[in-house]
Structure formats: C-alpha cells, structure tokens
Amino acid sequence: MEEKNHGILVNMFDQGNLKTEQDPNGEGNPTMVVDGVVKWATLSADGMNRQFIRANQ
Predict the structure, then answer these.
(1) Beta bridge partner(s), residue 53
(2) Which of 29, 49, 53, 57 is the most exposed place for a label (fewest CB within 10 A)?
(3) For residues 19 and 30, what is the distance between their CA atoms, to the nearest angstrom?
(4) Distance (Å, rounded) from C-alpha 16 to C-alpha 31?
C-alpha cells in the first residue's frame, strides 16, 4: 500500500522446493518455473497487485 501511488506492483511468487546445488534434495526442476517468474516480473503498470502466486497453479 505504501507504494501504490508510485507505480510499483508488489506480488509474491512461491516457486516451491526446487532442486538446486544448494538444495540437492529439492523436488522441482528450476527450469519449470522460469516462464512464471518472467510473466510475473514483467507485468504492465496496471497489472495484478498484492497477490500470492504459486508456481504449480
């Protein structure tokens, strides 16, 4: 709410438990969430705001 007049959108993206070098026991493949991350990181100025998005939805 503090940034609503400055054109800043704030959303949360939960990628889930991904298998990485730091977490070899992770379950998901990091490449499977790239499209979602790009989609939510490049919203238009009037895009979705104050939402929680899960990668598997």
Answers:
(1) 13
(2) 57
(3) 7
(4) 12
* DSSP string of 20-39, one letter each residue: -SS-TT--B-GGGSHHHHHH
Predicted TM-score (pTM) of the model is 0.63
Token digits for 36? 């979602």
Whether 52 contacts 18, CB under 8 Å: no
Question: Dmax of the chain from CA atoms?
Answer: 42
**What string of pLDDT tens digits covers the 57 residues of the chain?**
777 788 888 889 888 899 999 999 998 888 888 888 888 889 888 888 889 988 865
Residue 19's pLDDT is 92
Token pair listed for 56: 């598997």
Position 9: which residue type?
Answer: L
